[in-house]
């Protein structure tokens, strides 16, 4: 089993690259500087976690989940936060905790929530809606939800994106895609959803905008349906035949299955991961053409501090750092 890192503990000597990137982040978290081509370069730290807020916590807001997440977000100095499988009450609790710790409070200032299933008696303990969410350490401006093709279930999957208020050409997105491969109109639903997400991202790029997207894609990096995401330069024996325009922030880790990265899911992996062990289905993607320096990611150990549970989630949080060439 690969080495993991705790949500709030110090990052051990994973790679020299990660240490360098972390140092860059500490120096430049709130700064930008001109790149060699005259563009502005910025370093971002991204924190993503599928919290199993309904399946394991049943909507609870008082079992330590919110505190575990917020403590890690602050310890890891995240600029952007992506949450999947979150109940509305849990989102509100995390937003309140972050605001108390200095994040830019106010109506719509730094948080967005997208409902994928409306409140019902058997969902989130009957306490409210269920969906995906994002936070930003800088104030947010406009946001938009993109409805994805239906998988035939009660859940209406969405892509949620928000722009920085003071940098509207920089967007952060979160998504949680279906596990279904049911064929509709000749194409599996999971492929249709991936194509819809990619269409939105390609539109951002065509408009000269930068973006980062994080989420539970319910697809391992070596799956053929992700070939259209990963750039050919990311191709390895563990992740071949790529044709897309993106790099995933854990794909350059030489110590953990190069091209694939560290596992993130405790459950059944689907097909066997190319390097063995458990599956990676949570990813953080950036446009390859926007890369302006080194990048890296680390999967964190699942916390055990949630009352009444062996583990706080069936996923590990994924934290990535990347330097981008800004528009």
Would you kindly provide a written description of the structure presented here, covering whatever features stand out?
This protein is an alpha+beta fold. The chain has 4 helices and 15 strands. The strands form 3 sheets. Strands 1, 2, 3, 4, 5, 14 and 15 form a 7-stranded mixed sheet that branches. The chain is globular. The termini are far apart.
> How would you characterize the largest beta sheet?
7 strands, mixed
Distance between the termini: 41 Å
Low-confidence stretches: 9-33
**Which geometry do the CA atoms define?**
globular
Number of strands: 15
Question: What percent strand?
Answer: 25-35%
User: What is the count of helical runs?
Assistant: 4
Rg, alpha carbons: 18 Å
Summarize the structure.
The protein has 327 residues and is of the alpha+beta class.
């Amino acid at each position: 089993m690969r080495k993991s890192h705790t949500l709030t503990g110090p990052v051990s000597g994973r790679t020299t690259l990660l240490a360098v990137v972390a140092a860059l982040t500490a120096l430049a978290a709130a700064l930008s500087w001109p790149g060699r081509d005259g563009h502005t370069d910025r370093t971002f730290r991204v924190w993503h976690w599928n919290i199993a807020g309904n399946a394991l916590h049943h909507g609870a807001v008082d079992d330590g989940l919110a505190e575990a997440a917020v403590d890690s977000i602050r310890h890891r100095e995240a600029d952007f936060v992506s949450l999947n499988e979150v109940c509305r009450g849990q989102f509100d609790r995390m937003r309140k905790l972050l605001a108390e710790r200095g994040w830019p409070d106010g109506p719509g200032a730094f948080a967005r929530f997208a409902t994928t299933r409306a409140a019902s008696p058997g969902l989130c303990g009957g306490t409210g809606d269920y969906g995906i969410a994002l936070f930003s350490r800088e104030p947010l401006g406009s946001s938009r939800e993109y409805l994805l093709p239906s998988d035939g279930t009660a859940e209406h999957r969405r892509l949620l994106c928000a722009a920085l208020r003071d940098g509207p050409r920089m967007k952060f997105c979160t998504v949680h895609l279906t596990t279904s491969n049911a064929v509709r109109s000749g194409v599996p639903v999971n492929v249709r959803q991936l194509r819809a997400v990619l269409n939105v991202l390609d539109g951002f790029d065509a408009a000269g905008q930068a973006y980062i997207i994080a989420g539970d894609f319910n697809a391992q990096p070596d799956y053929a349906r992700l070939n259209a995401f990963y750039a050919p330069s990311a191709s390895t024996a563990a992740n071949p035949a790529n044709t897309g325009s993106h790099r995933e922030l854990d794909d350059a880790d030489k110590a953990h299955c190069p091209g694939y990265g560290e596992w993130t899911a405790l459950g059944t992996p689907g097909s066997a991961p190319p390097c063995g062990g458990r599956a990676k289905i949570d990813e953080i993607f950036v446009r390859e053409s926007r890369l302006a320096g080194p990048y890296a990611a680390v999967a964190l150990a699942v916390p055990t501090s949630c009352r009444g549970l062996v583990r706080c989630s069936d996923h590990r949080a994924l934290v990535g750092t990347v330097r981008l060439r800004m528009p």
